[in-house]
Specification:
Elements (H helix, E strand, L loop, with lengths): L1 H18 L2 E3 L8 E3 L5 E9 L2 E8 L13 H28 L5 H18 L8 H7 L1 H14 L6 H7 L11 H15 L5 H24 L3 E2 L2 E5 H23 L8 H19 L8 H16 L1
Antiparallel strand pairs: 1-2, 3-4, 5-6
């Protein structure tokens, strides 16, 4: 899906670049017309040399002004919200069906939901327009999940498939804890930081890839427990740090293709520090008292604020 989004966005960018307004320097070159998409240039500085005026143009490939569905930002974002909702719903339905038919055990199925939903949601961010409007409309999708968790968790809405795929014991009231914190963290990461901030990437990757795989690996390979916390394993903590870091770097490269981030070794080092520090916090005994879906985003934000 990431490749599809990038390919379509690049096609629309190129198409818009060719068909966009033409710049005409009729004063200096009356017969010269060449296509310039103004939004792709970060500087346009005349350099005078005698009777000749040369223009120094520094071009950057900037996909932030592009749109996948429409050149009208509002229309594009509404369509992008619908597309993202369909993708998220498809994944949720997939895991609900696997839970209903017992394809995976309940704990693994719940973690597959945990790992995939946030990461897939973040893959859809480039299809939204630039600015805060895109962030707010993207946040509608996890925001609706918050509403659903509140309704199902309070017993107002009966949804056994959702309860079975997201709860540990099958108790619908569990949705008011971990799943609600999960959806809230992703919603706030979208609104407050958005796709041009490494903090949003770190929050969602640490929460989804890191915390999710820590549990999966810890249950299967976690024979050696941590000396300061018998409820956590060495394998699980290492898996969390590694998975968080790899996912963060992957999304750094992904967003850099669209011009939202600049990939650099400094940012890679920052992700390594934040992922490792968050994994350490998650391994502490206090994590048994605080839900991971709350502790991991908070720790990521605290460390990331100092690092990035």
């Amino acid at each position: 899906m990431a490749a599809l989004i990038y390919t379509v966005s690049q096609f629309r960018y190129s198409k818009h670049q060719i068909s966009s307004n033409y710049f005409s320097s009729s004063h200096f070159f009356p017969n010269l017309r060449f296509p310039i998409r103004k939004s792709t240039f970060t500087s346009f500085n005349p350099v005078h040399s005698g009777d000749f005026t040369a223009f120094r143009i520094r071009e950057t490939r900037n996909f932030q002004t592009g749109s996948m569905f429409s050149d009208t930002p509002v229309v594009n974002d509404i369509m992008a919200t619908g597309f993202t909702g369909i993708v998220a719903l498809a994944f949720l339905r997939l895991w609900e069906e696997t839970a209903k038919h017992g394809i995976f055990d309940q704990k693994l199925n719940r973690k597959l939901v945990h790992i995939s939903i946030g990461l897939v949601f973040m893959l859809c961010w480039p299809i939204f327009s630039s600015g805060r409007q895109g962030a707010y409309l993207a946040a509608v999708i996890p925001g609706l999940t918050i509403v659903k968790m509140l309704l199902v968790g309070s017993g107002i809405w009966k949804d056994e498939a959702t309860v079975k795929s997201m709860s540990r014991t099958g108790d619908y009231r569990e949705l008011l804890k971990g799943p609600l914190y999960y959806a809230t963290a992703i919603t706030l990461a979208s609104i407050l930081y958005w796709r041009d901030s490494p903090l949003s990437v770190a929050v969602i990757c640490n929460l989804c890839a890191g915390d999710g795989l820590a549990d999966v690996i810890g249950r299967r390979l976690g024979h050696q427990k941590l000396p300061y916390n018998v409820n956590k394993s060495v394998a699980g903590s290492l898996a969390m740090g590694a998975a968080s870091f790899v996912a963060c770097v992957g999304y750094m490269y992904y967003f850099s293709m669209f011009g939202y981030m600049e990939k650099s070794w400094e940012m890679v080092l920052g992700f390594l520090i934040v992922s490792s520090a968050t994994a350490l916090v998650e391994s502490l005994p206090i994590s048994s008292e605080i839900d991971d879906n709350l502790a991991v985003p908070l720790a990521t934000i605290i460390f990331g604020t100092f690092v990035f």
